[in-house]
Amino acid sequence: MIRLRSAVAGVCLCGFVAVSAQDVAPTVHVARFPLRSGGLELTRPTHAGAFFDVVGRRAALFGYENRAAEAWVYPLQVLDEFSLSFRLEGYPLEIDGRDIMASIHVRPEATTLVYAHAAFTARQIMFAPLDEPGLAIVLDVQSTLPITVTASFRPRLRLMWPATSMTSNIGWDEAAHVYYLTEETRRYAGVIGCPSARDISVMPYQEEPRDVPHRFVIRVPPDREREVVPIVIAASLEGRAAAKSAYDRILSSVRALYEQTADHFERLDRDTLSVTTP
Predict the structure, then answer these.
(1) pTM
(2) N or C: which terminal CB in the chain sees fewer CB atoms within 10 Å?
């Protein structure tokens, strides 16, 4: 079932839409893989309000430390106000990730934000694959208790200035575990999802006009400690099917795309001009 909502007015359009076989998400498990080390790397404690970015040929993520971020697949802004929060089993409060963001690690191929709590550590590894219209956000969570990660965002799907804004809609596909962002011409489309995500954005009808972010939750049990959780953002100027195809390609090749991106920047560092000064 796909639930469709207006991303601008907050209007709920209820209905059942047939889901084709290719829209049903297969079970995807991504084993934890080592990140590159050595070479160019900047590491420090986070500074609230300091700018960071993850920039590729076709997509980028821009944000501020201890604050939210926005995602672009050129020339579209897909979403903004992306942030994470955490809830431990048996712990009564939700922990806002912006409050426990402890350090940032920047390499040419990826940027990692580290969230540190007495009961868990979570690493948010972000990279832009070289030739794909999308972004990968890999969550590496180590916790002493079962933990649920909540991702929140506001859908945008708008072209870069000075293009006019479009009226966008967002729908959750329960079978594929993705949100589809679309607009009235059906030319532009975006997808954000995770194989283990569950949407929690639906509100009672009388509350739908409230302007609140969309949210999905990902449960990470302790027995999944050898795996990482991929969140993928993709978009296309050729409609929803093309955006979903890009999403599927990135999701099915997260580690290979990370390695390809890292290899590219290592070659640049090794083979291009360098200057050494006193």
Answers:
(1) 0.87
(2) C
